[in-house]
Each structure stands twice: as C-alpha cells, then as structure tokens.
Amino acid sequence: MLALAEQWEYEPNQLAHQLLNRRSNTIGVIVPKISYPLYSQAITGIETVVEREGYQLLICQSGAVYEKEVRQVQSLLSFRVAGQSADWSETAGRVLPGPAGS
C-alpha cells in the first residue's frame, strides 16, 4: 500500500482527516492589525511553535472591529480549529462569552 501511495504521489486529504477527527491541525490567531510590530513579532513566534508541533497557523486581522471579530471566531469554530488566540477589542471583552467576557 505504501509503495502505491508513493508511486501515485498520494497526498492525504486534510478535509477528510478533519471530518473524521472532528478537529483540524490548525490554530487560529485573531489580531487587530498584522502590521503592528508587536503582533508581527508575536505571530512569528507563534508560527515557529505551531509548526514545530505539526500544526498550521491561520491568521485573521480584525481591525479591532467587534462584529468582524465575532465573524472570525465563528469562522474559526466552523473550521474546527484545534485552538485559537485573540487580542479582543474593548467591546468584545465586555460582550463575548467565555474567557474574553469573563
């Protein structure tokens, strides 16, 4: 089987794997603006660790707009990300359920 997979240059279907395991190997990060030095440096460090552990990084830029942050969180959850991190806007900290709104 492995010889055939190699001969045919088989690439595993990540979507099928995600559906079977009900999660992905993706970590989502939401930041207000990627070009801010603090965030670009943090993303570089996060990416290094994430890749070393066999995950992928998906970066979302919110512009510190609450409605956009909510859509991005919902989108990441729909992709069944293995985890997510965010720097919430002030409004989100008061309104979003969970750790940001606790």
TrEMBL record:
Q: Which InterPro entries match?
A: Peripla_BP_I
Q: Kindly state which keywords UniProt assigns to this record, in alphabetical order.
A: DNA-binding, Transcription, Transcription regulation
Which Gene3D superfamilies does the entry link to?
3.40.50.2300
Is DNA-binding included in the keywords of this UniProt record? Answer: yes
Top-rank taxon of the source lineage equals Bacteria
PANTHER family attached to this UniProt entry: HTH-TYPE TRANSCRIPTIONAL REGULATOR GALS, LACI-RELATED TRANSCRIPTIONAL REPRESSOR
The molecule here is called: LacI family transcriptional regulator
Give the species. Nibrella viscosa
